[in-house]
Structure formats: structure tokens, C-alpha cells
Amino acid sequence: SSVSFQDVVGILILCLVSVVAALDFKYHHTEELEQYLKGVRAAYPSLTHLHSIGRSVEGRDLWVLVLGRFPTHHKIGIPEFKYVANMHGDETVGREILLHLIDFLVTSYGRDPVITRLLNNTRIHIMPTMNPDGFEATKVPDCYYTRGRYNRNGEDLNRNFPDAFENNSASIQPETRAVMDWIKNETFVLSANLHGGALVASYTFDNGNPVTGSLNGYSRSPDDDVFIHLAKTYSSNHASMYKGTGCDNRQTFPEGITNGYSWYQLEGGMQDYNYVWGQCFEITLELSCCKYPPADQLEKFWRDNKVALIEYIKQVHLGVKGQVTDKNGNPIPNAIVEAKGRPHVCPYRTNEQGEYFLLLLPGTYVINATVPGFQSMLKTVEIHDNTGNFSALKQDFSFPEVSDQIRSRVASCPKTPLYQELTRASAAVKPTVHILVLMTVMLVIFK
User: Fold this and answer.
1) What pLDDT does residue 428 have?
2) Catalytic residue flag (residue 32)
3) What is the per-residue pLDDT for 2?
4) Are 303 and 385 found together in one domain?
């Protein structure tokens, strides 16, 4: 009997699915990693989108697999989430567990109701390696440190971003530039970057000054309560991180979390950059005491992190979201939308579709929407924990006096260290810098 075209396609798809199913617990080098990601893309074309956001110094692709019901583009109301691993090339656990996370998500979709709803209501971006050159350069795996930590130019990518507290003199690397452009082009709301060498969830700020509390050894962001919640969400759902025992007797982390600055000061880090310039809350996850453990431990690392990885993604649905529109119902980009009492030094603005997303814990808040040149609009909202419903509270703003013709063109945020400017602030500073200026003045008076 003749074989129909449909039969051939069916057999090919089965082959692809079985290729995907064969993800084993071992280290996947560049070619295998690419082959795996391309196999997933081919086997699940309606659920995934694979693209490279740039190239490493040695020309390796920086692959990102996007998963969701609308994988190729942003949909209004659906928040964007990302995981980035292997930023330090010799910290390898995150690289492999993200491949297993991809495998788990695509194979659970349509079978597991929670994963199905998660993917229907969230666009998830996964970058298994930000530093493929460093990974390939690590010839002899080591628990503590190898030159593979750095990129091909010998730069530490987690010291390579613009810094909010001091001028970072490091020259921006191709890998860093690619991630900065990626952050600018997507409306990321929540993120985590996966490291190794400790067992703790660390949160913003990594750097600081007296304005943020550095004199007390803790650098507090305006959303400190949300960051503590995010870090605890991961640590409490991890097999052992919540115990806070750390990796040796010298270091303990109560509840498995730490403020980045409290742990050690760091300039040019990715998580602070995401928060200040990307409007994206990011934490740093240290997932293994050993930076590059033997491959036979990878299955246990996946089991230890699996629940935490999923629970953390759900937090992208915390708080409030909505659209800012003009009198004709057209979106207003670059409108400032923030919760009162939580000013960001770089005010959080709406995207091209006029959308905003604010991560806030349950409670009552006043949301302030401002179209520069017009009267601000205030709305009081009562926020509940909606992470289980996979949708933040919806609160739209319509500006009846704004029309297409009088759109404001807002300059993007300055790239100079912002908090440094605030510490030198004078009475001439505009009211938008509110609380931090006040704190600075108080500090100066009480010194």
C-alpha cells in the first residue's frame, strides 16, 4: 500500500518528538544545545519560537527559546518573563536545568492544567547560556573557579552593565549589548539569572550608597518588600535553599535569601540594570555550591529546582496591569505609571501599546498615571494575590483631554549613574525625584 504525505509528516513529527524526549542528564555543548532547541521548535511549532538575540565574541549564537500561546510576539495583557543562565561560563547547573525546564513545559502543555494555564497567560523566554564561549573554554570542570567564568575578552559579564550608582568603566561586551537590546525590545516584567557557587536567592540592589542604606550594610530598593517575597518564593519552593545553611559553616542566609549588597557589593550587575533601566524585577539565583558539578548530579539539581522554577514564573502575575489610552481609545506610550510612595529613579513608563505592569504585594495602593503636560490621574486599587488565576488585577486609564496630535515624546532614561546625581541633588531638583531627595537632605542635615 502507498504511504500518504500525511503519514510521512506524522512519522517525521514522531521522530522529532522522540528526539526531544531524549534529553538526558549530561552537559550539552554548543552543537548539542542548538540541536536540542531546534528540535523543540520543530516538534512544538505553535507553542515555541526560537531566535538568536546576538552573538558571542567568538561568534556563537545567543539562543532564546520563547514559549507560550503566542510565542512569536507580545500580546496585550500577557506579561513577559525570562530566565537567563550560564552568564559565568563555568557556572553550569542553570544551563542544564533550563533545558529540562523547556522539556517539562512543552511536554506538560495540554496535559497538566497548571502548566497549560501558565503558558496560555505568560510569554516565557529562556536563554540557557549567555556566555557560550566561557562554557566551551572550561576544559577542566572545577567546583570553585576557572577562567571560563569570563567571556572571550576576559570580561566578567555580571560586572559589565551600566551601574546606577557609579560610572562603570568596563567596555560593554557583545553578549551584554545583546541582552541590553533584548531588554529594550521586550516588555519584561520579571526575570531571574541563574548562577552557581552558593545556595541562595539574592535580590536588588547589588550596589548602593547612603541614599539606599549602604551605611547600614543593606541597599534597599523602593520595592524591597516585593523583592523579599520573590526571593522567598524561590527559596521556599526549593528542596533545601530555604534552610539557609549556605555552602560552608562561615556563611548562613536566613530563609535562603539575601540582599545583594549585604552579601557583597557589586558594580555593573545585571539584576540592578534590569530593575532600573529595564522596568523588570530580576533576582540572582545561586543554585549549587559547586560551580561545575559532575554530570551525574544534574538530575538531582533538576528535581531540587523544578517546583521553585515554576512557582517563581507565576509571580509575574502579581500586582496590577493595564493600558493607558487617549480620548479615541488609542494607546499612549511613555505615560508614567507608578504606585504612590514607590518612585523609581527612572520612572516606569508604558510600552508602545500603552501598557504597564507593576509587581505589588496584596494590599491597597494608589496608582498614579501621568501623561507629561497633563493632569495626573489617581486610582485606588485593592490588590489580591492573583498568581493562582494567572492574571494581575486590571486597571486601565483613559485620558479624555489627550489626543493623537499632542503625544508627548519622552526622552529615554539617562545612562549616567542616577543615584549619584540624587546624592548631589539641590532644591532645583524637580518633584519627580521625590522621596530619595528627601532622604538625602535628611542625611545631610543629621550628619
Assistant:
1) 33
2) no
3) 53
4) no
pLDDT of 434 strictly over 50? no
Containing domain of residue 389, as a range?
A: 320-398
Instruction: Give the pLDDT confidence score for residue 7 in this predicted structure.
Output: 54
Do 302 and 341 belong to one domain?
no
Choosing from 80, 175, 282, 286, which is the catalytic residue? Answer: 286
- Mean pLDDT, all residues of the chain: 89
Same domain, yes or no: 146 and 276: yes
Residues 107, 96 share a domain: yes
Q: Tens digit of pLDDT for each residue in 147-165?
A: 999 999 999 999 999 999 9
Which 3-state string (H, E, C) describes the chain?
Answer: CCCCHHHHHHHHHHHHHHHHHCCCCCCCCHHHHHHHHHHHHHHCCCCEEEEEEEECCCCCEEEEEEECCCCCCCCCCCCEEEEEECCCCCCCHHHHHHHHHHHHHHHHCCCCHHHHHHHHHCEEEEECCCCHHHHHHCCCCCCCCCHHHCCCCCCCHHHCCCCCCCCCCCCCCHHHHHHHHHHHHCCEEEEEEEECCEEEEEECCCCCCHHHCHHHCCCCCCCHHHHHHHHHHHHHHCCCHHHCCCCCCCCCCHHHEEEHHHHCCCCCCHHHHHHHHCCCEEEEEEEECCCCCCHHHHHHHHHHHHHHHHHHHHHHHCCEEEEEEECCCCECCCCEEEECCCCCCCCCECCCCCEEEECCCCEEEEEEEECCCCCCEEEEEEECCCHHHCCCEECCEEECCCCHHHCCCCCCCCCCCHHHHHHCCCCCCCHHHHHHHHHHHHHHHHC
In a domain, 244, yes or no: yes
Check residues 372 and 61 and name the one with the higher pLDDT.
61
- State the pLDDT confidence band at 435, using cuts at 50, 70 and 90: very low
Q: Predicted confidence band at 50 (pLDDT cuts at 50, 70, 90)?
A: very high
Whether 438 shows a pLDDT value over 90: the answer reads: no
Kindly state whether residues 312 and 344 are assigned to the same domain: no
User: Are 280 and 164 found together in one domain?
Assistant: yes
Residues 248 and 333 placed together within one structural domain of the fold: no
In a domain? residue 311 = yes
State the total domains in the chain: 2
- How much of the chain exceeds pLDDT 70, in percent? 86
Q: Report which of residues 351 and 22 the model is more confident about.
A: 351
